[in-house]
Amino acid sequence: MLDIFKIGFLSVTLLDVLDIAIVSFIIYKLYTVIRGTIASQIFIGLVVVLLLSFIAQAANFKALGWLLQLVTDIWVIAFIILFQPEIRRLLVLVGRNPVIRMFIKSDEKNIADIITDAAFELAQYQHGALMVIVKSAGIRGVVETGEIINSKLSKDLLRSIFFPRSPLHDGAVIIKNDVIEAARCTLPLSQNTVLDGIGLGMRHRAGLGITEQADVISVIVSEETGGIAIAQEGRLIRGLSKEALRTKLTESLKVSKDKGWKGLFEQFGRNK
Fold first, then answer.
1. What pLDDT, on a 0 to 100 scale, did the predictor assign at position 142?
2. Domains and CATH numbers, the chain
3. For residue 56, which of 65, 224, 233, 235 is within the disulfide window of CB 3.0 to 4.6 Å?
4. Phi, psi (5° rounding) for residue 176?
5. Spatial distance between the Cα atoms of 87 and 80, rounded to a whole number of angstroms
6. 135 Cβ partners below 8 Å, 6+ apart?
7. pLDDT tens across 227-255, in order?
8. Which residues pair with 134 in a beta bridge?
9. Cβ atoms of 217 and 209 closer than 8 Å
10. Strand pairing of 179-185 and 129-134?
11. CA distances for 70 relative to 44, 49, 53, 76, 77, angstroms
């Protein structure tokens, strides 16, 4: 390959520059993950040892190269032992990357299960709740009206948020993928005040209203009756059983994923 430039006895090619850039990017990302921890100091020490080893080999320093080789021979094992928590954290971050998630099995069934279980446990105690599941485009303006959480979705967390004495129980929770983005959010109210001859409370009007303006699903738990309703595309269905709610959530999330793939392929076709 054609040399770009030379530094003394070293010839640098385009492939070498690309190789160095990739390694530098990986090292930078690793450092950002462990920055602020004790492990970051150890990581810097390992990088210095690797650089010295490279320089010693390039300059043909035999004694220094032999000494550093003793360290570098075991650095992989030492790295795994010393950085177990950071490696787990890094793998979690990689798994959450949108590009990676395109090639792994979606967890929409788990999301449906968590929300269904949480809704019916809240209903048993007649704890009112309003959960909004984002299907496609985000609703950033609505998220910003509440308290940002950005926490992993779980049944216990939803129950804690909607516990009547919780400071976050009043308002809606916004859920995107498997993350609770925010709580105590303010939603636009639907103009409909009556459905099938039955008046709609503020919680039901808010749950219905957001589906009239965005591609989302709302799950509403009535504080007065303990009944559960689901709203989607401006339509409200009340009196759902546990299995009916689980089925509707699973189907809606699956359709959302299929639409996303269809749109991606259509866009790819237009760009060809």
1. 92
2. 3-101 (no CATH), 108-271 (3.40.1700.10)
3. 65
4. -130, 125
5. 8
6. 215, 216, 217, 252, 253, 256
7. 999 999 889 999 999 999 999 999 888 76
8. 176, 216
9. no
10. unpaired
11. 18, 11, 10, 12, 13
Structure token digits, residue 59: 């300059």
Give DSSP secondary structure letters for the chain.
--EEEEETTEEEEHHHHHHHHHHHHHHHHHHHHHTTSHHHHHHHHHHHHHHHHHHHHHHT-HHHHHHHHHHHTSHHHHHHHHTHHHHHHHHHHHHH-HHHHTTS---HHHHHHHHHHHHHHHHHTT--EEEEEE-SS--HHHHTTSEEEEEE--HHHHHHHTSTTSTT-SSEEEEETTEEEEEEE--PPPS--EETTEE--HHHHHHHHHHHHSSEEEEEE-TTT--EEEEETTEEEES--HHHHHHHHHHHHHHHHHHHHHHHHHHHHHH-
What is d(CA 197, CA 204) in angstroms, rounded to the nearest whole number? 14
**Pair of tokens at residue 174:** 């916004």
CA distance 95 to 91: 6
Of 141, 140, 133, 217, give the one whose Cα is nearest residue 179.
Answer: 133
**Phi and psi torsions of 146, nearest 5°:** -115, -160
> Which residue reads 């308290």 in tokens?
147
**Structure tokens of 114?**
């968590």
Tens of pLDDT, residue by residue over 82-118, are: 666 666 666 666 655 555 555 555 444 589 999 999 9
Sign of CA dihedral 7, 9, 15, 16: negative
Rg (CA), the chain: 27
